[in-house]
Amino acid sequence: MDVGEASQSVEVRASVVSLDTQTSVNMAIAAGNRAEGIDLEFRILMPGGRIKYLHVVGKAERRATGSIEVIGAVIDITERKLVEEGLRQREERFRLVLQIRTRVAANAVALRTDEQNLV
Q1: Rounded to an integer, what is the distance from CA 42 to the centroid of its chain?
Q2: In whole angstroms, what separates CA 65 from the centre of its chain?
């Protein structure tokens, strides 16, 4: 498949690429058309509403005939992205718990100080 075919294929599927990644996909297609390297992560919306994350890497080379050939791989990184998101959420919850505990401890110290000043 040359870049033109890949471009048409991506354009046909443009409706499944999330809006926030369409620009990146278009930039990768343009890079391929200029015979440059491609390294892109994006997400697509699958039938039924499931989201799939993909990593595309490749090298486009211009042939003597002027056509461009792309050699690369498409890797499903959905599991990795879901794990990363889970870790981010747990880290945020931990950060919130730590903030709350810090505030509670500070308030307890302030109350003790107030009680000591009343005596």
Answers
A1: 6
A2: 37
CA dist 115 and 87 (Å) reads 42
- Report whether pLDDT(3) > 60: no
Q: How many C-beta atoms lie closer than 10 Å to residue 54's C-beta? A: 18
CATH for 3-76? Answer: 3.30.450.20
Residues in contact with 33: Cβ distance below 8 Å, sequence separation at least 6, in sequence order: 3, 7, 60, 68
Burial class (CB in 10 A: 0-12, 13-18, 19+), 72: middle
- The span from the CA of 51 to the CA of 46, in Å, is 6
pTM of the model: 0.57
**Range with the lowest mean pLDDT among 25-34, 52-61, 85-94, 95-104?**
25-34
Q: Which two tokens stand for residue 74?
A: 């498409």
Mean per-residue pLDDT, 93-107: 90
Q: Which amino acid is at 37?
A: G
Instruction: Find how far residue 81's CA is from the centre of its chain.
Output: 7
Contact yes or no for 72/47 (Cβ under 8 A): no
In three-state secondary structure terms, 57 is strand
